[in-house]
Design brief:
The complex is a heterodimer of chains A (180) and B (299). Chain A has five helices and eight strands. By secondary structure, chain A is of the alpha+beta class. Chain A folds into two domains: 69 residues, Alpha-Beta Plaits; 80 residues. In chain A, the strands form two sheets. In chain A, strands 2-3-1-4 form a four-stranded antiparallel sheet, covered by helices on one side. A four-stranded antiparallel sheet of chain A has the order 5-6-7-8. Chain A is elongated and about 55 Å long. In chain B, strand 10 and strand 11 form a beta hairpin. Chain B has a single domain, classed as Ribokinase (UDP-N-acetylmuramoyl-L-alanine:D-glutamate ligase, 3-Layer(aba) Sandwich), CATH 3.40.1190.20. Chain B has 299 residues and is an alpha/beta fold. The chains are: A alpha+beta (180), B alpha/beta (299). Chains A and B meet through strand 7, strand 8, helix 3 and helix 5 of A and helix 2, helix 3, helix 4 and helix 5 of B.
Chain lengths: 180, 299
């Protein structure tokens, strides 16, 4: 006798939740993200994270930057994106600055940007571990802070988002502000 | 065999498998020229510097293009899951890719089926997914920087962007506390090489050694200098050193290469890597008792 077993579908384990005000938005979000090639799953959010309706979308948290961009392009309204199973819902917002005489290095979370004090040219980026980071490294180096592409617009991951924050801070410093 | 897996920053580079070599400033795999820049390229090039110096077989690599969309990363996961048992590497190094906890879980299950378990090394986002999925015990070595150490110590974080503020907002002197917390949470590999102003080599929660000389602060700003440490430690293990010895020598060699290059924040990682042969020639025998001489005599 042959026993046929259905192949077990791998459990999706994304680590992030998108919260919505109503079910319609959640369903639309699922549709546009699937069309864009993202792996997602509709779930009920934990009680503590219920901000609107009781339908949320589980995502791979690290893809937050790309997902927010897809939402923007497709008019998807959402309340928040938060880590799953965590009491933390805010991105790390600590910024530090290191003076290297001719250069300044700004660190935002796990990402660092260094620029030439005189010319405002980005000389290095470091930190992170997601696959868009080497791509952004190549795209940013050698460009002036005022002309560099926005990592949030061409990157896809949380590392890109932190790099964007570091770059914003560099720009503030370069333009004579005190930064945050 | 030493097998390195990771992404390169191209959208259309297909899954490519093979031994790595160099041609001018480029890496070459299966006829494809690849940059030796921040990320997997820098890590592979550093490992190759060790194998070339010690006249060992070059690393084999499993690479694919990915600029953050995940397609190349998924191809690498799938290749490893399907083939790791047959390939049976002695050292398996996982590096840049889109962290995917479910795929990492499948990979660790595949590793368990290997007749001979490889030494498992993870850095960058492969370390994120290993920790996030609660699979740190599947790994022999993690090579976090100081921020990533805080990430490992945070029981809830699945990415360093969401570390609890009180853990992140600490200086390097707090690393021992973060190390203890990470081991307490079972979020650390057997051995940690924590990269920072002071490098810590930790085994099963015990700090075995700290390395802080030479002090080259500019290295922190140079993209890829953490990747090179991972390449070095992995290749020294492949060469036969104990993991903790490999970690200590990797930390020392990276710093010394920075000193030799007179590193500045504007330097390219390639300029640091170029110094490794001179560093090995001057210091490796003293640091490791692996004394390679021209003509092939080892002792």
């Amino acid at each position: 006798m042959y026993l046929f077993r259905r192949k077990k579908k791998p459990r999706f384990d994304g680590g992030g939740l998108v919260l919505f005000m109503d079910v319609h938005d959640a369903l639309k979000a699922e549709r546009v993200l699937k069309s864009a090639g993202y792996m997602v799953g509709l779930v009920a959010p934990p009680l503590a994270l219920r901000k609107g309706c009781d339908l949320a979308l589980e995502i791979n948290l690290v893809e937050q930057t790309g997902i927010e961009r897809v939402f923007g392009e497709n008019g998807v309204f959402y309340v928040d994106i938060v880590p799953l199973g965590s009491n933390i819902s805010e991105l790390l917002d600590i910024v530090s600055v290191t003076d290297f005489d001719d250069w300044v290095m700004v660190k935002a979370g796990n990402m660092k940007v260094a620029f030439d004090k005189e010319s405002g040219v980005i000389v290095n980026t470091s930190g992170g571990g997601c696959p868009d980071i080497p791509y952004l490294h190549a795209e940013l180096i050698g460009k002036k802070l005022t002309e560099a592409p926005n990592p949030k617009e061409i990157g896809f991951t949380l590392c890109a988002l932190m790099l964007h924050r570091a770059l914003e801070e560099c720009l503030l410093l370069w333009q004579g502000g005190e930064g945050s | 065999m030493m097998l390195i897996a990771g992404t390169f920053p191209y959208r259309d580079l297909p899954l490519t498998v093979g031994a790595v070599s160099t041609e001018g400033e480029s890496l070459v795999v299966d006829g494809r020229r690849l940059p030796c820049t921040q990320g997997t390229g820098a890590m592979v090039r550093a490992a190759l510097a060790v194998t070339e110096y010690l006249k060992l077989d070059p690393p084999q690599v499993v690479i694919a293009g990915d600029i953050g969309e995940g397609k190349g990363s998924r191809a690498i996961y799938e290749y490893l899951i399907q083939n790791v048992k047959a390939v049976s590497p002695e050292v398996l190094v996982l590096h840049y890719w889109l962290p995917d906890m479910a795929q990492t879980r499948r990979l660790c299950e595949a590793i368990e089926k290997c007749a001979r378990r490889p030494v498992m090394v993870a850095d960058a986002a492969s370390m994120y997914s290993a920790k996030g999925a609660g699979l740190a015990s599947c790994f022999d070595i993690f090579t976090p920087d100081a921020t990533e150490m805080a990430f490992l110590a945070d029981p809830d974080a699945t990415h360093p962007a969401y570390i609890a503020r009180h853990l992140f907002d600490t200086d390097i002197t707090q690393t021992p506390n973060l190390v203890a917390t990470a081991y307490g949470n079972k979020s650390a590999a057997r051995l940690l090489l924590v990269k920072g102003a002071v490098d810590y080599v930790v085994r099963d929660g015990e700090i075995l050694e700290t390395v802080d000389e030479p002090d080259v602060p500019a290295l922190e700003a140079v993209g890829g200098t953490g990747d090179t440490i991972t390449g070095l430690v992995s290749a020294f293990i492949y060469a036969g050193l104990e993991p903790h010895e490999a970690a200590i020598i990797a930390a020392k060699a990276n710093r010394m290469a920075g000193k030799f290059a007179q590193a500045t924040p504007a330097m390219k990682v390639r300029q640091i890597i170029d110094q490794f042969p001179a560093v090995f020639k001057e210091h490796l025998c003293q640091w490791s008792a692996v004394c390679y001489t021209e003509g092939g005599n080892d002792d």
